Amino acid sequence: YDFSCELYRMSTYSTFPAGVPVSERSLARAGFYYTGVNDKVKCFCCGLMLDNWKLGDSPIQKHKQLYPSCSFIQNLVSASLGSTSKNTSPMRNSFAHSLSPTLEHSSLFSGSYSSLSPNPLNSRAVEDISSSRTNPYSYAMSTEEARFLTYHMWPLTFLSPSELARAGFYYIGPGDRVACFACGGKLSNWEPKDDAMSEHRRHFPNCPFLENSLETLRFSISNLSMQTHAARMRTFMYWPSSVPVQPEQLASAGFYYVGVSS
Question: What does the pLDDT look like over 53-96, one tens digit per residue?
């Protein structure tokens, strides 16, 4: 696992003790992953280990105070200071929020992150980074299972993580924000009537993941009528007798005759 990615760090907190007064998300954002022992966490970058968390503790401040030379925490703090001067455009029905600086520095997310703005069609927030020079493809999220595992803090009940994962999306937050592992496109502000795959296709029609899905679909649909041996055998009615291969052999191997030469 690449713990420089905030999502991977978050995934280690599934057995984190419930009574700890500091949130798993704030710990992951500060560079820490869970060691599995009590409430002890460790920084992926400098190796600092902390435990015995108290009410009011700030993981970022503690990290900075106890290991100020950690390059991750230095980048995080400077990025946070920089982001306060940026103007973010508020989104209708949503939040005015720029992406967590931790994610900007992670190896999993590549691309340009601008502040979110409403889509003119509706309140759906769409971010398309396919035009950027960096390759948005995420190998780590290329399996449906890996994408599904990112949804343990998914806030919506009307749209299932399994449907989103099947449509190529993994969860990045905040709120209901997801990203496609293949094209890097991001969507948020989901509504109850939304279908994840349809929205993906509508907003990011050139996504390579969708093109592959369509090819698979076309293949399976075009061949449904030829799935049985008997159906394939019937196509060989006008098979040229001069051809040395028997129709029976071809039909058994999955072939059917389309009637153009052999």
Answer: 999 999 999 999 998 888 888 888 776 555 443 333 333 333 32
Domains and CATH numbers, the chain: 6-79 (1.10.1170.10), 144-215 (1.10.1170.10), 225-253 (no CATH)
Phi, psi of 55 (to 5 degrees): -60, 130
Indicate if the alpha-carbon torsion angle 194, 169, 183, 218 is positive or negative. negative
Give buried/exposed letters for 104-124 (b at 16+ CB in 10 A, else e). bbbebbbbebebbebbeeeeb
Can you say whether the dihedral through the CA atoms of 52, 58, 63, 66 is positive or negative? Answer: negative
Q: Give the pLDDT confidence of 2-18 residue by residue, as tens digits.
A: 788 888 888 888 889 98
Q: DSSP string covering 237-258, please?
A: GG--TTSSS-HHHHHHTT----
**Alpha-carbon Rg of the chain, whole angstroms?**
25
Distances (CA, A) of 208 to 172, 196, 238, 261: 20, 16, 40, 35
